[in-house]
Specification:
Strand 1 and strand 2 form a beta hairpin. This protein is mainly α. The protein has one domain. The protein has a two-stranded antiparallel ribbon. The N terminus is likely disordered. The protein is 53% helix and 5% strand.
């Protein structure tokens, strides 16, 4: 008999090693108990994990907005819709008028995440200087935070859709199964 994981009750053969997190994770994405455990651990650490936080924000948005997988043919179609919908959603990316967090909160989130910021700037074809052109601008940390959140959005959407599929929700093409 295989031993189950104390964090998520997944069995050993259903888990895989995640090099980014340095631990075993459920093979089909993060289960709710496991994410909550990671968040508790993350809150003990100084580093803010954008991948986990944005994935949680996406899942919360899906729940709050009564999102239905059955409205889409497949995961790619659902992901494309969500990308278009959530890119400017203030509560997900901070890419709105008010920003989901204060400048001070964003400064804390950015601590130990400068490498992720540089990856995001590189991915979007931005020069680091473009973000820092107006270094006296009041919302610099919010702009940097928003850049990172937009950068990890696709990953967060993918994880949220995997979680919903794990809950048994079906796409239009799989409804009859």
């Amino acid at each position: 008999m295989t031993e189950s994981c104390i964090n998520c009750a997944c069995y050993e053969e259903e888990r895989e090693y995640c090099f980014r997190l340095g631990t075993y994770t459920p093979k089909n994405g993060y289960c709710k108990n496991y994410r909550e455990e990671l968040l508790k651990e993350n809150n003990k650490m100084d580093k803010y994990n954008y991948y986990i936080e944005v994935a949680n924000d996406v899942e919360n948005w899906l729940n709050y907005n009564d999102f239905e997988l059955s409205n889409f043919e497949n995961r790619e179609e659902a992901a494309e819709f969500l990308r278009d919908e959530l890119w400017a959603e203030d509560s997900i990316t901070g890419n709105g008028h008010d920003g989901y967090a204060s400048e001070e909160e964003c400064e804390e989130f950015l601590c130990h995440n400068l490498d992720l910021l540089f990856d995001a700037l590189s991915e979007f074809g931005e020069l680091v200087g473009s973000l820092l052109d107006n270094h006296k601008e009041k919302n610099l940390a919010r702009r940097a935070d928003c850049t990172i959140r937009c950068y990890v959005l696709d990953d967060a959407i993918e994880k949220a859709l995997i979680i919903w599929e794990g809950y048994g929700f079906k796409y239009m093409e799989n409804k009859n199964e």
